[in-house]
Specification:
By secondary structure, the chain is mainly β. It has no helices and eleven strands. Strand 7 and strand 8 form a beta hairpin.
Length: 114
């Protein structure tokens, strides 16, 4: 089983930056694909960025060029660097690990004020 704990959310003005972290327990962290998802008010949960076990990233069109995902397998941690934040980025951000099974963190709130 994999347990995930997100941190780094908060309130930021438009144009600002935040770094989200997701710390995972479990010795099998490195073999899983990691992803950051978000769910805004009244919206469905959507994929923001993902990164494979080999470090290959992918991004939603809405965040390309502004967000960067990375992982540190030695520290069982995945990061999401968010720059040029917009009010529409406001959401609860969730970390996900999957390799066959899928596990979710509890989420961290990101609020971007205009």
């Amino acid at each position: 089983q994999v347990q995930l704990v997100e941190s780094g959310g908060g309130l930021v003005q438009a144009g600002g930056s935040l770094r989200l972290s997701c710390a995972a327990s479990g010795s099998i962290f490195s073999i899983g694909t990691m992803g950051w998802y978000r769910q805004g008010p009244g919206k469905q949960r959507e994929l923001v960025a993902g990164i494979t076990s080999g470090g290959m990233p992918n991004y939603a069109d809405s965040v390309k060029g502004r967000f960067t995902i990375s992982r540190d397998n030695a520290k069982n941690t995945v990061f999401l660097y968010m720059n040029s934040l917009k009010p529409e980025d406001t959401a609860v951000y969730y970390c996900n690990w999957r390799w066959g099974s899928s596990y979710w963190g509890q989420g961290t709130q990101v609020t971007v004020s205009s």
